[in-house]
From TrEMBL:
Its main location: cytoplasm. It is an enzyme of class 3 (hydrolase). It catalyses: D-glucono-1,5-lactone + H2O = D-gluconate + H(+). InterPro entries: 6-blade_b-propeller_TolB-like, Regucalcin, SGL, SMP-30. Belongs to the SMP-30/CGR1 family. Binds 1 divalent metal cation per subunit. It comes from Cherax quadricarinatus (Australian red claw crayfish). It comes from the Eukaryota. This is Regucalcin. One of its GO terms (biological process) is L-ascorbic acid biosynthetic process. The keyword Lipid biosynthesis does not apply. Its cofactor is Zn(2+); Mg(2+); Mn(2+); Ca(2+). A divalent metal cation binds at E17, N168, D221.
Length: 327
C-alpha cells in the first residue's frame, strides 16, 4: 500500500461544506456556506471558479450543490431554508454571481432563522437535506429545531426526521438497506433501516458513540462510505477524518489534517481513490487563524488503499423542473 498523503488543493474559505465529485469534468464542487458561494475546482488544470448565489440578502447561506442529472449547467442548491435551482455555465469563466432560477421548496416556517445544512442524494437520486438553527459559534445554537427532508423526482417533499440539532453526514450502505446519519450534537453516528423503493426510514439506533469512544471534544460532521462499507467521517474540532466500521462500531483508521475544524468528506479522482476534505475557519480567533494558514482549506488525501463509489446526482422529472423555472 502506498503512503497516505494529505495535500491542500484549495485555499481557505470561511465555512467549507458539501464536497461533490463530478467525474466527467474531473472537478470538485463544494460550498462556502456563510459566504453564499459555490466553488468548482478542476483537479488536473487547477482551475478554480467561484460563483456567488445572490438571494437579495447579504447574509444568506448556501450549504449544498448537487448536479441535476441530464442538465450539465443546472445545479440544485440550498439558499437559507429554501431549496433552489441555479444555472452555472460550464463554458463561461466570467460568470461570478447568479440569482436562483427557481425556488423549489421553503421549509421550517416556524423557525425563520433556520437554514439548510448538509445534503446528499440517495442511490435513487432523491435529495436528502437537513436543517438547523442559527449558530452563534460552532456547535452553539438552539437545539432540536432542525429536520431532515427527502425530495423525490416529482419534487414531493417529506419530513423524515424531526428534532435534529445540527443536520449533518449522510450515507447509504452498499446493499441499500441502511441509511447512516449524523446529528452533530447527538455525538454519534446513527443508522436506520432504509427502504430504497419508498425512501422510508425506521428503527434508529446508534452505531458509533463519540463520547464512549473517548472523542468528547470532536463533533461528527460530514460523512461518506467506501467500497467495503466502512464510513469516513469529518471531525469538527478534531483535526482529523476517521474511518469507522459501522458493523462493529470501531475506529479503523484516523488521518490527521493540518487544521482543526474538519467539516466534510467525499470520494473523487479518476478511480474514486482520493478522499476530498473540506474545513472551516469559523470559531477560530484572529490569533488562531493567523497561525493556521490551512484553516478552511480543501484537501486531497491519497494513498488510502481504498476507494469510494460515484456520487449520485439529483434525478428529477426535467419537464416539471422546467415548468418551475419558467413560472
Ligand atoms: O459544516 C457544518 O455542517 C456546519 O454548517 C458547521 O457549522 C459545523 O458543522 C458546526 O459548527 C460544527 O458541527
Ligand atoms: Zn457539515
Amino acid at each position: 500500500m502506498s503512503a497516505v498523503q494529505v495535500k491542500q488543493v484549495v485555499e481557505g474559505v470561511h465555512l467549507g461544506e458539501g464536497p461533490h465529485w463530478v467525474q466527467d469534468q474531473q472537478c470538485l464542487l463544494f460550498v462556502d456556506i456563510t459566504k453564499s458561494n459555490v466553488h468548482r475546482y478542476f483537479l488536473q488544470t487547477k482551475r478554480h471558479q467561484v460563483l456567488h448565489i445572490d438571494s437579495g440578502s447579504s447574509e444568506s447561506t448556501v450549504s449544498l450543490i448537487i448536479p441535476i442529472e441530464g442538465e450539465p449547467d443546472l445545479f440544485l442548491t440550498s439558499l437559507d431554508r429554501s431549496l433552489a435551482v441555479v444555472k452555472w455555465s460550464t463554458t463561461d469563466p466570467d460568470q461570478h454571481t447568479v440569482k436562483p432560477k427557481a425556488i423549489l421548496h421553503t421549509v421550517d416556517d416556524h423557525y425563520p432563522t433556520n437554514r439548510f445544512n448538509d445534503g446528499k442524494c440517495d442511490p435513487q437520486g432523491r435529495l436528502w437535506a437537513g436543517t438547523m438553527g442559527k449558530e452563534t459559534a460552532p456547535g452553539q445554537l438552539d437545539m432540536y429545531q432542525g429536520s431532515l427532508f427527502c425530495i423525490d423526482a416529482d419534487l414531493n417533499i417529506t419530513n423524515r426526521v424531526n428534532k435534529i440539532s445540527i443536520a449533518n453526514g449522510l450515507a447509504w450502505s452498499l446493499d441499500r438497506k441502511t441509511f447512516y446519519y449524523i446529528d452533530s450534537l447527538a455525538h454519534s453516528i446513527d443508522a436506520f433501516d432504509y427502504d430504497d423503493a419508498t425512501s422510508k426510514i425506521e428503527n434508529r439506533r446508534t452505531v458509533f458513540d463519540y463520547k464512549a469512544s473517548g472523542l468528547a471534544k470532536d463533533l461528527p460532521d460530514g460523512m461518506c462510505i467506501d467500497e467495503t462499507g466502512n464510513l469516513w467521517v469529518a471531525n469538527f474540532f478534531g483535526k482529523k477524518v476517521m474511518c469507522v466500521d459501522p458493523k462493529v462500531g470501531k475506529i479503523i483508521r484516523k488521518v490527521e489534517l493540518p487544521t482543526q475544524n474538519i467539516t466534510s468528506v467525499c470520494w473523487g479522482g479518476a478511480d474514486y481513490s482520493t478522499l476530498f476534505v473540506t474545513s472551516a475557519q469559523t470559531g477560530l480567533s484572529a490569533e488562531a487563524l493567523a497561525s493556521d494558514p490551512a484553516a478552511g482549506g480543501t484537501f486531497a488525501i491519497t494513498g488510502l488503499g481504498v476507494r469510494g463509489l460515484p456520487p449520485t446526482n439529483f434525478k428529477v422529472n426535467l419537464n416539471l423542473l422546467k415548468e418551475k423555472i419558467a413560472s
